[in-house]
């Protein structure tokens, strides 16, 4: 059998090719936005393409992370809401004119993960029963933002929408390479936004938090200002608001300035709500335990 060897020129070419592939892969990952979106079946069944729906924004949880990030710290919630509104309109969601006619309450949480400070669920898996009990125990009283430290420390994969795809105790249906990409993505800080819609009339009339859909999206944060990142994230989510997908979607981030293609009304953020908000805030952060 002939022995195989590489000459120095051919080895150098191979190394250069491998380096080029690595750079290209990292560059693509740098601009990749991951999107997880889910919706209740009864909502999808009644959703009519001919009937627009209206909403109010409600400020959720701000996950500030553990690194100095002036862009994240100095971006007010109203700027995130204004940047998102034109893209919600593409799915026929419009600012509400009154509480009597409003269809949805959109709770928006945002921030960054902190992978270097705390291990994630990808390496430390808690029992499933612990999730529900923990959420429910907190929701029994009005929420305190300090309670979310546990969630932020241990649940980066849930905040990002990766959890149903990388569970070690269940077959998730993704390839080893896809799993590697997701775990690699969690090794650095990532900006994320979570938008969860609740039935507003059910909330006002019956004091029930009826969740109808949730969309979350994230992008690698180093090298990108949050002022630009939140606009790119909302733009990437434009095709997914109010929809359901079994797969984790992704697309290349568009970091160019956003130009509103539709005219929208005045953006209103509800400051108070006449129900215990702990239930809604926690429910807005939930993610399905499995691919649905």
Q: What sequence of helices (H) and strands (E) makes up the elements?
A: HEHEHHEEHHHHEHEHEEH
Relative helix content: 25-40%
The residue ranges in which pLDDT falls below 50 over 5 or more consecutive positions are 1-6, 11-29, 118-154
Class by SSE composition: alpha/beta
Let me know the number of strands: 8
Largest sheet: 8 strands, mixed
Span between termini: 52 Å
**Number of helices, counting only DSSP H or I runs of 4 residues or more:** 11
Spatial extent as radius of gyration: 21 Å
Shape: globular
Mean pLDDT: 76
Strand-residue proportion: 15-25%
Observed structural traits:
single chain; 292 residues; alpha/beta; eight-stranded mixed beta sheet; 20% strand; globular; disordered N terminus
Can you put this structure into words, describing what you see?
This protein is of the alpha/beta class and 292 residues long. Helix content is 37%, strand content 20%. It is built from 11 helices and 8 strands. Strands 1, 2, 3, 4, 5, 6, 7 and 8 form an 8-stranded mixed sheet that branches.
Q: How is the secondary structure organized here?
A:
Elements (H helix, E strand, L loop, with lengths): L7 H23 L1 E8 L1 H6 L6 E11 L6 H5 L2 H13 L3 E3 L8 E9 L15 H12 L8 H7 L1 H5 L15 H10 L4 E10 H7 L4 E10 L5 H11 L12 E4 L16 E2 L6 H9 L7
Parallel strand pairs: 2-3, 2-4, 2-8
Antiparallel strand pairs: 1-6, 1-7, 4-5, 5-6
